[in-house]
Amino acid sequence: MGRVDAAIDPLIGRQVALKSLRREFLEDERAIASFIEEARVTGQLEHPNVVPIYDLGESADDPFIVMRLVRGRSLTQLIAESEAPATSTAANELLRRLVQIILRLCDALSFAHGRRVFHCDVKPDNVMVGEHGEVYLMDWGIASTAHPRDSIAGTVGYMAPEQLLGHHQDIDARTDVFGLGGLLYEILTGRAPNAGRRMVDVAFASSTRTFSPGRLWKQLPPELCRIANRALTPEREERHPTVAAFAADLEQFLKGGGWFDTLACTDGTTIVTEGEPGHTAYIIQEGRCEVWKSLHGEPRLIRELGPGDVFGETAVFTGGLRTASVVAKGDVTLKVVTGDALNQELDQNPMLAAFVRSLAELFKDVDRKLSLRPGPFEP
Predict the structure, then answer these.
(1) Which residues, including other chains, have CB under 8 Å from residue 36's CB and lie 6 or more apart?
(2) Is 184 in the same domain as 137?
(3) Is residue 374 scored above 80 in pLDDT?
(4) What percent of the chain has pLDDT over 90?
(5) pTM of the predicted protein model
(6) Within 10 Å of residue 107's Cβ, how many Cβ atoms?
């Protein structure tokens, strides 16, 4: 509904942004009320990631908002202008930068939610990244407050199911969680979360989404896909309950492990089998496992593993045969470590990568020499 122009504040000589209604809306009382509400709501959100409002004025009966002039690009432009990284290290750096932008938006939304203000239109066009790295969540014009309006607006490609269905009473923090999930989805796939989907599917479908890499990426981290998929779940109860919970998942990804897939096993599941070839290792996140080894033809319990323990690591480097069987004792959640996923993780830290890869080569060299030595009963 609005247009934004650069202007000069004549009193103090600073450059500002001047937002006004487009001419076709000047006789629309609801549009004018919405415009004034935007100024009122945004003016109450004094936060580093919300553009400050300096004034709400009127010229010839036409309202205008005076705000900070932000020089930079929208997230839409930033993604469009980014070139596909030439190396996996560069790809990881770009992806981490984009995730950090989303985390700044989480700060703004958490602040707003604490004041019972829900943005309801989180999308790349409404995110500005300044020339010096500043991040702003823009356009609070349709924000839902403690006193909701009689209609719900938004952008169809990014709207949560409760918005599409017009369920005013269901608008809450999880509506903006859906929007944040949509940002993450678009960063990963290059598409809006609702693009190409029938509205009935958006509102009612419970199936997981397909994550195909956009033009920027050759591969996608399984953990980021999981986070986005949870945030975009039609059932509000299954999304992250708060923006802070969504942000915590993203922060955990930045700490590492996001390239490892997650595997859930039930009680009694044999995860690896002694004597079989293997190329993956496992890290136990939750639950416990038993390690069994055949001794004199009889299976013997030799060890019990718990959260944080690793097994199968030799296979990642050598691809050799499993030396023992590992069985889930109760329900177990594991991180799956493949050679490719490990390389992606290491590419986030070049110095550590050089160290680990050097050790891996030494390990493989020793393993190869041992395999060439005659056995204890051979001549």
Answers:
(1) 56, 63
(2) yes
(3) no
(4) 53
(5) 0.84
(6) 18
